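Record type: monomer structure entry
Structure origin: computed from sequence
Chain ID: A
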Amino acid sequence: MTDAPDAKQDSTAAAERAPLEQPSPVPRAPLPPASDAVRGEWGRRVEAEYRSAAITQHLTLWLIQMGASPDLIDDGLRIVKDELAHARLSHRVHGKAGGGALPALRRETLGLKSSGDEPLEMAVARAGVEVFCLGETVAVPLFKVLREGCTVPVARRALDRILRDEVRHRDFGWTLLRYLLELPCAPAVRQLVERELHAMFTRLRRSYMPPGGAKRAAISDDDRAWGLMPVARYGEILERAIERDYVPRFGEHGLDAAAAWRRAASAPDRSAAPT
């Protein structure tokens, strides 16, 4: 027995009006457990990024005060926004990892200091070289390695954005140094870098190559998935950056980074944790 034509039409119309059956959502894989090390590291990253925003804002103010290139000023202001975005993203990861309230930042660390008896250009050179030519240059390979082992989505998104921006931040530092070395104050800038580069390298070593750090070469897979890496890797990446980045980049301006690094390596070590 077959249905009557009208019955067929009614059933077809009802089927067309009925909502389409939606596929069941694919359950997300559970996140790996977050350790105290994960929460501590992402908490430090929140603080570091926020501090970087404040320092860059201060440096950009100095650029405005000395009448620097508008392009440099625009780049500095963009970096401030980047660093604040990095802080927000890092805070999101910290919260997803179960982190609680973070301690208030010490206000005296949220800016730069200059000596009242030196030209502003010298303070700009000192901050630009240490914060950007050194710090942001090694940050590029550091964050690249952190990103490679990261599989937790919220942490991976943060590292994706940070790594993309760090390349531009690095380039800002070297552009600023080149700009300063084209000003009438270039001889004084050159003397400052030659005089202080080894001390800057010493501080960088203390941050990324603490005593005993070379032996701390392993972390758990879960910590790696959250965007961490062993302390030993920090030192290895910094060592590579000397020959790959610092020596040739400073060498373009007739500055001997290799000699400054050797002098820094001979300085007494002090304990510090990677930032």
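Annotation 1: The chain has a mean pLDDT of 89.
Annotation 2: The first helix runs from residue 5 to 17.
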